[in-house]
Amino acid sequence: MKKHKNEDKLFKAAMEIGAGYAKKRGYADFDKGVSNKDKVECIYRLLVTDKLIKPLPTDKEDGPNIKHRLVLWLIAQLPDNHPLLD
């Protein structure tokens, strides 16, 4: 798994966009008591269910791999000249 130079910023953007996507799909906002780990997994599972990203193998479904998959999803959505891709 090759880490992107701006992976932290890309992940933060992926979470914001993923949460917005979930809201448009009819899901409520995340409560304040929901952990970041649960938010990441929820957004990942929604995108997999909607076939927007390919699911990870079951033995690879852990925090870093899920975060990386969300980053790859966002990279595919961004235009080539986006500042986060530099």
Write a structural description.
The protein is mainly α and 86 residues long. The protein has a domain at 34-76: Four Helix Bundle (Hemerythrin (Met), subunit A), CATH 1.20.120. The chain is 55% helix and 0% strand. Helix 1 (7-24) packs across helix 2 (36-49) and helix 2 crosses helix 3 (63-77). The longest helix has 18 residues, at 7-24. It starts with 6 loop residues before the first helix and ends in a 9-residue tail after the last helix. The model has no long low-confidence stretch (mean pLDDT 91).
Low-confidence residue ranges: none
Outline the biggest β-sheet.
Answer: none
Alpha-carbon Rg, integer:
13 Å
Tally of DSSP β-strands: 0
CATH topology of the domain at 34-76: Four Helix Bundle (Hemerythrin (Met), subunit A)
Give the count of helical stretches.
3
Could you tell me the mean pLDDT?
A: 91
Euclidean distance between termini CA atoms: 18 Å
**Helical proportion, percent range:** 40-55%
Strand content: under 5%
Write down the overall geometry: globular
What structural class do you assign from the helix and strand content?
mainly alpha
The CATH architecture assignment of the domain at 34-76 turns out to be: Up-down Bundle
CATH-level-4 superfamily name of the domain at 34-76: Uncharacterised protein PF16691 family
Order of helices and strands: HHH
CATH class of the domain at 34-76: Mainly Alpha
